[in-house]
Amino acid sequence: MDAFPKQVALLEKSCANTMNMMKASVSSFFIKITAWFLTKYLSKFLRSVQVCRGQMMMVKEASKRNVPMIYLPLHRSHLDYILVTLILWHYDIRAPFVAAGDNMNIPFFNLLMRWLGGFFIRRRLDSNRNKKDIVYRALLHEYMTKLLSEGEGLEFFIEGGRTRTGKSMIPKGGLLSVVVEAFNENEISDAYIVPVTFSYEKIIDGNYCQEQMGLPKIKETFMGAVKAIFKVFFNTYGSVRVDFAQPFSLKEFITHAKTLPYHPITLPTPPGRHSLDYGASYPNFSSTLLSTNGEAENTRLLVKALADRVVYTSDHCTAPMATHLIAFLLLTKYREGVYMRELTKSVHWIIRELQALRADVGFCGQSEDVILYAQELLGKHLVSKKWLEEDNDMKLYPNLTLPSVFELSYYANAVSTYFALESVLAVSILINGNLSLFHLLTSTTGVEKKVLREKVLEVAEEICTIIHNEFIFLPPCENLNSVLSILLESFVSKEILSTEESAMGDELAFAGKDRRWADRLALSLDVDEEENEGSYVADQYYQVNTERSDIRERLHFLVCILGPTLEAHSMVAKFALEELEAEQPEEDFMKSLGDYAREKVKAGLALFSESCAMIGLKSAVKSLQDLEILYSYDGANLRMLGLSEQQDSRTTLEHYTNLLETALS
Ligand SMILES: CCCCCCCCCCCCCCCC(=O)SCCNC(=O)CCNC(=O)[C@H](O)C(C)(C)COP(=O)(O)OP(=O)(O)OC[C@H]1O[C@@H](n2cnc3c(N)ncnc32)[C@H](O)[C@@H]1OP(=O)(O)O
Fold first, then answer.
1. Could you write out the three-class secondary structure of 80-116?
2. Pair 412, 422 in one domain
3. Whose CA is nearest to atom 60 of ligand 1?
4. Is residue 565 in some structural domain?
């Protein structure tokens, strides 16, 4: 070190600058003034902020235990972090330090944010993709660890930004890994993890339609922020509901996780690798891996499991608001429009369905009033209404044109998450039963309506793998196959399916068994003879009750929930097959993919106009990269994309296209 005093001095100076840019300087006096101001003026643009007292009491109780509180909200709006600190202040709970992306480091506002607990971090840790910025990483790590060891609370948005689709995004592990490491290195004895979620009746900070149309994101600027604040103060945004999930101990989570296997549908990318290994068998956290690399990989899985658990929990305690439900029903059941009478009944029905899934809704009142209120908040540009004299009823029509449909689907997606797995099963049933959306709208006489249980589960798992970036389908440590099996049983109790033992006769059943045995052999699973004999059971067939119109309607509804996502994936697979003869810059590929998808929608060749949303297309490309069907690498100045040669990518893409198109034909 002494040999390079100049370099050391320079490095020290640069570190001091970075720290000054990063650190917060919280002022409880300023928090008090801001809280007073907000309590007075929030009602200018919000009808109400709904918070559950019971939840806050639990958080307060946990906050008294002398361990750091880690608030992990899903990110929906810039109002999120304001509300969290404000609510905590109201319940006399210490304000956390909040990680803010450096894009928010806007003159004047950055000062206020620092006083209110904001500390600034880079959105990407490494400014150069190919080189780790170890100094910056160490500084951030040190700063956060110091805060934690002093018992300060932290808040960060693990999705890494606001969702553009209304669905939660796959969480990032960077900041969370610092908390886990602080615990592993005994810097803290424990921490309470608090998932937080928001339901906004109306989107506050813009509808993201620009981005969904493939136009670049608008940069945050001082003037932009001032304009946005003025706009907000002169509009109305209905109510907001904030849910704080039950705080859980990090220590207990880690101890518990060590005893359970974790089978993620997605794996975090291990160091030094650029994509995911789906063929790999996942280690239990408990397995003692001697190499440091193994340990690091185990920690990665642990952090991934924790992040997934947080998002899954938040997703499942997000209460849909009136606007979400109406948008959801219009896009999944009534794309052609619906009479008020019918929609009223459907609102009752969907609330019952949600209750059965133990989900709460964030509104009450007569259904008709709720619908009219939601329509007004959504606005005429999204849902229009017309009084029809001849029918003596009002009809509501969703706007399915671009880009309005993206905004409508943003609202609807708050509900989609609850039905995602059911929808996957419904799609699989359609594929296996040689049915299509078209069949469900018409009579199905003469169409094969029997499905093999095992095949339904197999295809459902395949669909989950294809669209793994769209939802956290299940909590970590639960097994996808088991969850799907239980759900399939519920299809029987709902009479969508009826059981039929060996309906196809012994011959086919034995053929099925032979194939299964061969599959197992190929997978080199360790099946001992006894187990093999025990599993000599006839294949289970189900009859799909499509002769009943209510069942057809239900299947249609379920398939329409994932319809746009599947259509987007199918478009991407088809386009990649056509366009990626040779590798090309990812940016060019994405641009022409967006143009292709929008053209398809405009020409009326897509079933769901929202399927051409840019974020959905990007997510589908990312899935193909994760699955190693597409490869990407950083060239000189460009990121290149190509069709992987490692496996038979073309065949896989063709298979995906066929699979997805079958259900949507
Ligand atoms: C009363 C009224 C009051 C009002 C009161 C107002 C409060 C006033 C506050 C203002 C507040 C504004 C708030 C704005 C809201 C945002 O600005 S949201 C955006 C900023 N926040 C975030 O992004 C938080 C979540 N993001 C992360 O955690 C990301 O990981 C980071 C840290 C940003 C880095 O992202 P990245 O560079 O894309 O890299 P990523 O893949 O995540 O991995 C980075 C490293 O993390 C580690 N890592 C990642 N995953 C894992 C894993 N699973 N296991 C272990 N390690 C992992 C690894 O070291 C990894 O490096 P490699 O080993 O892979 O090279």
1. HHHHHHHHHHHCCCCCCEEEEEHHHCCCCHHHHHHHC
2. no
3. 174
4. yes
Q: Cβ distance 132 to 126 under 8 Å?
A: yes
Supply the CATH number for residue 571's domain: 1.10.10.10
Residue to probe by mutation, ligand 1, list 36, 93, 94, 125, most atoms within 8 Å of CB:
125
Angstrom distances, CA of residue 98 to CA of 25, 115, 521: 11, 11, 52
**Does residue 186 share a domain with residue 114?**
yes
pTM of the model: 0.90
Whether 156 is in the pocket of ligand 1, judged by its Cβ within 6 Å, is: yes
Same domain as 310, residue 276: yes
Domain assignment present for residue 56? The answer is yes
**Each residue of 128-164: pLDDT tens digit?**
777 889 999 999 999 999 999 999 999 999 999 999 9
Task: Kindly state whether residues 307 and 352 are assigned to the same domain.
Answer: no
**DSSP classification of residue 397:** E
Out of 12-26, 145-159, 212-226, 541-555, least confident range = 212-226
Same domain? 62 vs 211: yes
Amino acid at residue number 529: E
For residue range 109-127, list pLDDT tens digits in order. Answer: 999 999 999 999 999 988 7
Q: How far is CA 299 from CA 258, 333, 437, 473, in A?
A: 11, 44, 44, 22
* 531 domain-assigned: no
Cα–Cα distance for residue pair 358/319, rounded to 1 Å: 10
Do 179 and 43 fall within a single domain?
yes
| Ligand 1 pocket check for 151: Cβ under 6 Å | no
- The answer as to whether 257 is a domain residue is yes
What are the backbone dihedrals phi and psi of residue 198, each rounded to the nearest 5 degrees, phi first?
A: -125, 145
Alpha-carbon 501 to chain mean position? 38
Domain count, the chain: 4
Query: Which range of residues forms the domain containing residue 505?
Result: 418-519+538-550
